[in-house]
Amino acid sequence: MGSADSLTAVRDDIGPGALSDSFAIDPFPGAPRRSGRDGTARTAPVLPAPPILERLAACAEAADLTGEPDREAVAVLRESGLLALAVPKCYGGAGAAAVALNTCVEQVASVNASAAIMLFQHCAVTSRIVENGSPAQHREVLPKLADGRWLAASAWSESGAGADKKNLATRAHRTPEGDWLLDGAKSFTTSAGLADVYLVLAQTVDEAPAAASRDTGYGSAGQTFFLVPGEHPGLVPDTTMRLTGMRGSATGFVSVRECVVPDSARLGATGVAASIIARVRDSGASLGAVAVGIAQAALDAAHAHAGRRGLYAHQAVRHRLVDLATQVEAARAVVERAGRRSSAAPGMTTLHSKLAASEAAERVVADVARFLGSAGYVETHPINRFGRDARAVALMGPTNDLCKELVSLPWNR
Q1: CA distance 53 to 173
Q2: Nearest-CA neighbor of 127 among 173, 156, 94?
Q3: Nearby residues of 204 by Cβ (< 8 Å), 6 or more positions away
Q4: How many CB atoms lie within 10 A of CB 127?
Q5: 95, containing H or E segment
Q6: pLDDT digits (tens, 9 = 90+) for 224-265
Q7: How far apart, in whole angstroms, are the C-alpha atoms of residue 106 and residue 358?
Q8: Confidence (pTM)
Q9: d(CA 188, CA 383)
């Protein structure tokens, strides 16, 4: 579902500059522009405010029933200030570090996992722009991502490309005028049809630089990133995909057919997307945060059940809940360690955090479902949504199997 990029530290060397083409003036002509209710810039809160979490919780129930894209949740995210987390302060953002990002994502996931993955993907794309964008892209795009006018999404996955994105069918060709012609179809794109800008991964015909030829385990040489506005001619979202979990995340298809973008839509150098992807995991922002939030929600449901039924008097019940809480705390700890980037190999720790937290979330949810008994075996009980959402985290890129491959790949060199 989209690409599980991570947030990187905000660079200190971002400065003003200009590009020589018209895209530097307005790289996204015709795109919708949104502002806050009062027209003023918003600053991202340290943590989501309780009223925001309450509104997102209400959205989660409704979206899970219908399976439709959760537009209300996106509206709440735009108003909340959370979309500014990964944007540097000099562009109106919060400049949040990975620990803060993980904490915010966890808290959102504890009430609405679909909103959490949309928030995470937005921050991931924002971070890629911060790292690799031109000064003109910074000036034009980052303020819009910060104040909620724009929601960002990543369009990397394809049917048949493999979890490691090595066999892309989407192509980008140079036109005689120096533009790029994109053609292809993406699948499992989170926020499809809701996003205002997409980070599209395409195979470029140009010869890849030698530095990009080394196998990184994710992506391949000759791939390039492009920023494409949601209403750009030739980009067409399709939200007919119906998922079992994360049903409000608007995860669907995005096609780019005869989609012409200027060269200044390119993010980073031509052919080096794989090297950009390889640096993602060093950031410390982890999809494990989504899993921890889901696991915490399941644990909260178990405590609510125990309280209603007067089960705390039983030692066996208390100890069972302690065992569940220990698993949640352990998962939270490894995600926090990933965010702090304090290990000898931060990138590996981020991969381990996704594996540990997602697997723990599935175990915790399953154990809570058994603990609830028949009370949880009804369609409307949220424990069923938690189970479907927890399964989805393991399938998000990099999938858990790919995480294991990325961790073990250096052993075979």
Answers
A1: 44
A2: 94
A3: 171, 172, 173, 222, 223, 224, 270, 271
A4: 25
A5: none
A6: 999 999 999 999 999 899 999 999 999 999 999 999 999 999
A7: 12
A8: 0.87
A9: 24
